[in-house]
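Sequence of Cation-efflux pump (Clostridium beijerinckii).
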Amino acid sequence: MNAKVKVARLSLLSNSTLIVLKLFVGLATGSVSIISEAIHSTMDLLAAIIAFFSVRISDKPADEAHPYGHGKVENISGVIEALLILVASIWIIVEAIKKIFNPGEIESVGLGFIVMFISSAVNLIVSKKLYKVAKQEDSIALEADALHLKADVYTSLGVGLGLFLIWVTNLNYLDPIVAILVAIFILKEAFELLISAFNPLLDIKLSDEEIEIIKNNINKYSSVFCNYHKLKTRKSGRIRYAELHLVFPEDKSIKDAHDICNKIEHDIKQDLNYSEIMIHLESCEKICTCDECKISLQLN
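Predicted 3D structure, token representation.
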């Protein structure tokens, strides 16, 4: 079992346990903020389930039907997770507003306070493990799952603080107000996740930093080719794809040109993990006036 599947399974287990604990305490105390946290954790569990299956599918090698692999499954997973968070946040806000106009007594505030801080501690540990593996494996699904749990750390702390203030001030209307603040925080998280997961589905280009790495490695060999053009980049799951047209002097042999392409591909892959490079060879005679070709020939 690979690292991605192991840590995704850990997220499933922790989320399941915390949902049961929060829901039980939320119903026992009548706290809408605790119940909202239980709902948030339920969304986290659904996200963890989606992440678990998506990382297993995304690691499948390319096949005849999917020549570019299955990497975008992780992006689809991230989009679904973001939409789930949006729905949960809206539901929490609606229920909290109802609670403001119909406040109720909150019992066993101390128990709720303890459960929230236990939840924060557990999610902090699991989210760190998820982030670590997500960065190592460049997994958007695991990163999304880690983001959920990281948000849960802050929201649980917020709810815990709200319960503490209720215990000190005896102002029960603070409970739905805290729940609304939690939901707003979650909404912000959902929009950020939606953008980061959805963009690769549109084949948006790699970041400027990544493109600069590609260009620098190409330009290392500028003395032996005329120029390059039509540089295109995109990302699918964790795989970064780049393709370009490399123009050589007319008298350059195909073998020599191919060897240079291999060196460029090797250097890019050394500096940019999980990358696939496609280089199209062109002769200078076909596309230019040969001024650059003459310069290149003089250098050689």
